[in-house]
Amino acid sequence: MAGFSHGTRRHPRSRGRTWSRTGPDRATLGIIGAVCAVAGFFVLGIILGPVAIVCGWLAMNRTWSGARPVPALIAVVLGAIDTLLAIIWLAGVATPGTGLY
Fold this sequence. Notes:
This protein is mainly α and about 100 residues long. About 55% of the residues lie in helices and about 0% in strands. Helix 1 runs antiparallel to helix 2 and helix 2 runs antiparallel to helix 3.
């Protein structure tokens, strides 16, 4: 029953929405990235560092221009430091002469 003035002719769609709203928003991605970056300093830095970078980059809307939310910037910077330290640590473990002898 499309009668009783409840038709779909007035507002068929909201104009500002061009994507589906099923995923996390940018603020949540920034917070998730910052948490991953801080946790990466203690455990699994080689995995959590790049996850933090990706979450922070997506939270910044994939651009460096404009206003950047603070948790997203923290996630990108700490994630990069975390990843770099994990790579240096792995390279130090893989060098010859650091065995049991």
